[in-house]
Amino acid sequence: MRILVVEDDVNLNRQLSDALKEAGYVVDQAFDGEEGHFLGETEPYDAVILDIGLPVIDGITVVEKWREEGKSMPVLMLTARDRWSDKVAGIDAGADDYVAKPFHVEEVLARVRALIRRAAGHASSEIVCGPVRLDTKASKATVDGSTLKLTSHEFRLLSYLMHHMGQVVSRTELVEHMYDQDFDRDSNTIEVFVGRLRKKLGVDLIETVRGLGYRMQSPNDAS
Ligand code: CA
User: Fold this and answer.
1) DSSP result, 148-161
2) CATH says 2-119 is which class?
């Protein structure tokens, strides 16, 4: 899962980005509205954290532009505590949720998790696929109750496939959601990660769809 953080306060941006990385996400950072808007327009994000008060272009205009351009990724706005009108304007412009400053990073993380889950059609914080359970809150996964020891890449891969269970996900899409913009991306490595993940899962839940990509689905739903 890949997140964009648009916040001009350098310390706050770093604090949020570090916490998100710690929780297993890939993070891109932007420090003004123009850069943030560009990234959100050109890169696929699973969620965006967007400050309202930004240099060059303000956050409300940024989210408005994305929605006009047909970008539908979940957007969490950061607002000032006393500016209720900003919250209304942000939601009306197309934001999905907001957190007022000052906030606890844990609250931001919880809201981001919920936005990503809901966007993928999951209401519960735990996503289940046969014997595999993904705990989005603790960023861990189990098979038949025993915890899987996954590297950060393997976890991101499993998390993306489970959030999009039943759908065919292409290698390009996986690469885009597993690495940040500066990473030297190579879609061949995806095959390697899928192989390792299959081995660790020990159950055959990730299907290769020839020429298209991969699909993870519960044995009960297989057709
Ligand atoms: Ca600001």
Assistant:
1) P---HHHHHHHHHH
2) alpha beta
